[in-house]
Amino acid sequence: MTRKREQPPDDEPERKERVIHTRVPESLEAELRERAQHLGISVSNLVRNVLGHAFGLVGDVVADGHAIARAAVRGRPAAPPPPPAPTPPTAIDPPSLDDILGWQPIVLGKNAVCARCNAILPKGTDAAAGLAEGSSPARLVICTTCLGALRA
Q1: Cβ count near 29 (within 10 Å)
Q2: Among 3, 63, 89, 141, who pairs with 112 as Cys (CB 3.0-4.6 Å)?
Q3: Rounded Cα gap, residues 39 and 37, in angstroms
Q4: Which residues, listed in sequence order, are joined to residue 112 by a DSSP beta bridge?
C-alpha cells in the first residue's frame, strides 16, 4: 500500500531544504571556493545565493524584453536601423577597484553585478557606485556586503 504524501499549504514555509548534487569543472570549483572564502561564507551558501538571484535576474530580463517588444509593436512602423556610431579612436578601460576614490550609496535602477564578489544585484536594491579618479565615464557597482567589508 502506498501512502500519498501530504502537501503543505502554500502559506507554510518549506520545512526542509533539499540537496542538489551537480558536477562542475575543476576550475569552477576552485573559483567558487576562492570567492566563498573571500566573502567569508560557505560554498553552499554562495551557490544558493547565486541560484536564487539568477531566477530573479532572468525574470527581469525577460520582462524587460517583452516591454521593449510591446513598445516597438505599438510604436511606429519599422524604420531602418540607424547607422552604427563611429568607433572612438581609443577605448576607455573601465576603472579597477584600486582606481576608486570613494563609494556612493545608491538604489539600483537596473540589474547589476557586484564588481567585487560577482553577486547579482536586482533592480531596486541598495548598492554603492564607485567614483573613479580622473574623468572615466565607466562606473563600478558593489553590493552592500562588500561596501561593509571595505569600511572594516
Answers
A1: 12
A2: 141
A3: 5
A4: 121
